[in-house]
Amino acid sequence: MSANVLCIKWGTKYGSEYVNRLHKGVRKNLSGDVRFICMTDRGEGLHPDVEVLPLPVTPFDEASFDARKGGDTWRKVGLFQPGIAGLEDDTLFLDLDIVVTGSLDDFFTYEPGKFCVIHDWLEKKRAWMPGRDGRVGNTSVFRFHPQKHTRVYDYFAENQEQVLEDFRIEQQYVTRTLSNDLAFWPSEWVCSFKRHCRPTFPMNVVRPPHQPSEMRVLAFHGYPLPEQAIEGYQASIFKSTLPATWLKDYWNDAA
């Protein structure tokens, strides 16, 4: 039986090299056979071992969503549609702007059958606020069961207007919908470059980014992108970083 790994690529922000790097990083760090699937509208340049499928069907006007800030991530709802890619077993989804830095084997044995996701770092800190409990996932890395978790798609398709009124971003909706099956990855497995590697001001201007020792996956939400972090990122004084030279080994090794 193959381990199922899924990614999605649309538009031009990320080229085929991001998919190919991700594929190579997965193959290096996941034991056994792997079915690596990329759902995309642009399949040119992908490694021949990448299974290329069309973008998932979505029950909304994608062009209008793409025009909204963060609206394009609602496309992930389409990954939960019944019969997606003929998948029958637990499937690991990975964003394209992540870097695999360690073994992925445990991502398939941890809490089998549940919806496993990153415990969103910012929402965790907001748990004290009225109306919040902090139990929101970050869907850069999640594992779902394609037969058990189709209600994410089904409910959205029937209640789109209400869902968009109740939830600002897709990961809030997905997490709440699957709250009864929810499990968060161990915090040391998936790290955020911004929150775990980049020193806070003023140390970010004199100290290079840190490499967490137990990390398996490094997530890049927003900016910098991985190649920008490697070279050093110039933005506001609070968001700039010195070069993350250690990251270059993982990034180039997967090229």
TrEMBL record:
InterPro entries (alphabetical): Nucleotide-diphossugar_trans
UniProt superkingdom: Bacteria
Name listed for the protein in its UniProt record: Glycosyltransferase
